[in-house]
Amino acid sequence: MVGRGVLFALALLAFAAQARAECRLALVLALDVSSSVDAAEDRLQRQGLARALASDEVQAALFSVPGQSVALAVYEWSGRNQQDLVLPWRLLARPVDVLAAAAEIGQSNRRFTEFPTAIGYALGYAAAVFGTAPFCVQRTLDVSGDGISNDGFAPQLAYREFPLGEVTVNGLTIGGQRDDLAGYFRRELIRGPGAFVEEARDFHDFERAMRRKLVRELQAIAIGQAAAPGRRGG
Hints:
Layout lengths: L3 H19 E10 L6 H16 L1 H7 L6 E9 L5 E10 L2 H12 L12 H12 L7 E8 L9 H7 L6 E7 L6 H8 L8 E4 L5 H22 L7
Parallel strand pairs: 1-2, 1-4, 4-5, 5-6
Antiparallel strand pairs: 2-3
Helix pairs in contact: 2-4, 2-8, 3-8, 5-6
C-alpha cells in the first residue's frame, strides 16, 4: 500500500511537470487587509476578486492562448509580519479550475484586522510566494491597496533586497483620489515592462477595476508571446 506522503509527493511532481510544460504566467494577487479596511470592505474585495475571476471576459483572457495555462496564488497583507496565503498555487487549466479558485477566495476570511500598511514587507512576502511557484514563462504580481506604505521599509528597498528582478509588478488603488494614491503607486510600486496602475473609485468599484486589470495583463502576456514565441523567462 502506498503511503499518503508518497502520493502527495507524486501529485506535486505531476503538477510541477504539467505546469512546466504549459504555464505561460505565474500570477500573484495581494489583497490589502490593513486597519483602514473594515469588514464590509474586505468582503467587497474578496467577493469582487472572486466574481472578476469567474467573469466571462476574464476567463476568455485566461484561456486566450490554447494549451497554455496560468498559475494563480493569492495572499493578504497589512503590517510587517501580517501576511497570509488566501489561495496557494493553483494551475488554471480549465474553467472548472477557475471557478473552484474563485469559490475558495470568495469564502475566505481575513486573519488580520488591526495592523498598518507595510508595502515593502508585502513585496518581500511575494518573493517567498514566487519561490514556490511552478515554472512559468512570465511572472506578475498585483498589489491592491487603499493607502501608502506607513510601516517598515519602502518598496524600493524591498526591490533591492528580494529576488523580484524578473517579476512585473502592477498596482490597483482603491480610493485615494484626493491623496493621489495612484501617483504614489506609479512612483514607488510598479515596475517592469508595461507595468501599470488600475484605479477603483472605492471598494464597491473593486470588482470592475480588478476585472479590467486582469483582462489587460492577461491579454498583454498573450500578445507578447505571440510576437516572441521563443522567449523564455525565469
